[in-house]
């Protein structure tokens, strides 16, 4: 049992239900949710290590449900495309894969069928999945451990919410050498053999067909879900784009970013895989440093924000200085006000903003530089900061493939509420929250080319 104690004390692990594994259990169950991959997955690796220690097989239980907040056909379609890659990679490691979508999605029912010794899950700091873990832990008969598989440095090690990138950066880099290491991807010593009668849908099944979903936002042809597609994008970026990343990353008209955010959101690729590929590339040291700072510091600052701030999607998360300045300017006259429907339909006077909104609606993705401008203009064109925040969140979560994510909530809070930022020069509406204008933003890249590119996309889609 010393080895089991050692595994439970791994800094990535949260022991949600303590106790010794059931010696009569038949397997180790990995309850897959956020980390939808069978490689570079610390949660699955822990399940395999436990299975090998207990001399029991390991099985993945994956149970998509249709009631995740703000999710629609666009999101579920991308998720479904990644399922065959999970099952294939799991089989190579001797791990079973059971697909049980709603209404046959209950983990506890599945555990009654397979009788696990222990259940391993992956962490997710967002409100709804965090609540699921609490409720399952209360009812499960065997131990439940969860693992932070979404961050390179386990988010709990930061202990509290960080004020800004400059405060989290030294803390992350101090811990990074312990975690920026090649994943083991251990194989199961006891291969999984599915018991007779154990139900599982085929990995390519259309499980959404009978679901009641928002079908007004459809799939997008620009993206294909799955670990294999994520790895192809990563290889292309590292080989052909990473060296130019510092000069092109803020140019929406150029294909200069990794475009991995949808895959990171769904856990179809791990941040460690991305970081190691960049670190070991032939790109310049400066290019690697800038990209890794975005991937590790900025991304894990967002995870830290959501983990330690329950009000991550409301104005209650605002810093005192920003609350004061926005309150002082809450009665400022807006030169123009738009309804949420006008914003959704890209019906504003600003062609640059309209292009950004259309990019999101048409492709399921918006360049990050444009996301900042997009959110700040929603603040300028809404009756209040609170309404602007909710509008931006609803639109982002509805159309972005990487919506409903810590990065999105942190980015919107940065843009509208000044979160993780500092006070700037005072001006109407924004107060001391950082301002962006069409004129200044448009001069920093070829905005006319960007607008023309989105217009061409729209014409092609019509």
Q: How large a portion of the residues is in β-strands, by DSSP E?
A: 5-15%
| Distance between the first and last residues' Cα | 63 Å
> What's the CATH first level of the largest domain?
Alpha Beta
Helicity range: 40-55%
Structural class: alpha/beta
The CATH topology of the largest domain is given as Rossmann fold
Helix-strand pattern, N to C? HEEHEHEHEHEHHHHHHHHHHHHHH
Dominant shape: globular
Written overview of the protein:
There is one protein chain. This protein has 462 residues and is of the alpha/beta class. The protein has helices at residues 2-8, 42-54, 73-92, 107-114, 127-139, 165-175, 227-240, 245-248, 261-265, 271-279, 285-308, 320-328, 340-344, 351-363, 368-380, 385-399, 406-417, 438-443, 447-461; strands at 13-17, 27-32, 58-62, 96-99, 116-122, 144-147. The protein folds into three domains: 2-149, Rossmann fold; 227-308, Serine Threonine Protein Phosphatase 5, Tetratricopeptide repeat; 315-461, DNA Cyclobutane Dipyrimidine Photolyase, subunit A, domain 3 (Orthogonal Bundle). It is 47% helix and 7% strand. It has a six-stranded mixed sheet, with helices on both faces.
């Amino acid at each position: 049992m010393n080895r089991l104690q050692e595994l439970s004390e791994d800094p990535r692990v949260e022991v949600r239900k303590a106790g010794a594994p059931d010696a009569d259990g038949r397997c180790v169950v990995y309850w897959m949710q956020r980390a939808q991959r069978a490689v570079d997955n610390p949660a699955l690796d822990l399940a395999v290590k436990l299975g090998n220690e207990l001399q029991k097989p390991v099985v993945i239980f994956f149970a998509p449900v249709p009631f995740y907040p703000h999710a629609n056909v666009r999101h579920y379609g991308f998720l479904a495309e990644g399922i065959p890659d999970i099952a294939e990679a799991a089989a190579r490691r001797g791990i079973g894969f059971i697909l049980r979508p709603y209404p046959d999605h209950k983990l506890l029912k599945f555990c009654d069928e397979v009788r696990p010794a222990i259940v391993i899950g992956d962490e997710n700091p967002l409100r709804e999945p965090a609540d699921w873990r609490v409720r399952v832990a209360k009812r499960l008969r065997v131990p439940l451990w969860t693992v932070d598989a979404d961050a390179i440095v386990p988010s709990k090690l930061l202990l509290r919410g960080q004020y800004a990138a400059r405060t989290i950066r030294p803390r992350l880099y101090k811990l990074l050498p312990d975690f920026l290491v090649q994943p083991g991807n251990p194989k199961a010593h006891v291969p999984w053999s599915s018991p007779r009668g154990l139900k599982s849908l085929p990995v390519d099944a259309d499980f959404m067909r009978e679901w009641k979903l928002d079908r007004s936002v459809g799939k997008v042809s620009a993206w294909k879900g799955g670990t294999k597609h994520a790895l192809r994008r990563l290889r292309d970026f590292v080989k052909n784009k990473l060296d130019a990343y510092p000069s092109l990353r803020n140019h929406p008209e150029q294909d200069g970013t990794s475009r991995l955010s949808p895959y990171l959101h769904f856990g179809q690729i791990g941040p460690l895989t991305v970081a190691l590929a960049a670190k070991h590339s032939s790109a310049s040291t400066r290019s690697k440093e800038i990209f890794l700072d975005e991937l590790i510091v900025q991304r894990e600052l967002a995870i830290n924000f959501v983990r330690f701030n329950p009000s991550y999607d409301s104005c209650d998360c605002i810093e005192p200085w920003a609350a004061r300045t926005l309150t002082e300017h809450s009665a400022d006259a807006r030169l123009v006000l738009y309804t949420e429907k006008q914003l959704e339909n890209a019906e504003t006077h600003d062609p640059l903003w309209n292009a950004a909104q259309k990019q999101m609606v048409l492709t399921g993705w918006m360049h990050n530089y444009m996301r900042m401008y997009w959110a700040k203009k929603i603040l300028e064109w809404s009756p209040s900061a609170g309404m602007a925040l909710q509008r931006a969140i609803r639109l982002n979560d509805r159309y972005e493939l990487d919506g409903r994510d810590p990065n999105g909530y942190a980015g919107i809070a940065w843009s509208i509420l000044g979160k993780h930022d500092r006070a700037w020069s005072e001006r109407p509406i924004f107060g001391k929250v950082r301002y962006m204008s069409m004129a200044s933003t448009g001069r920093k890249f070829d905005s006319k080319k960007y607008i023309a590119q989105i217009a061409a996309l729209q014409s092609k889609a019509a």
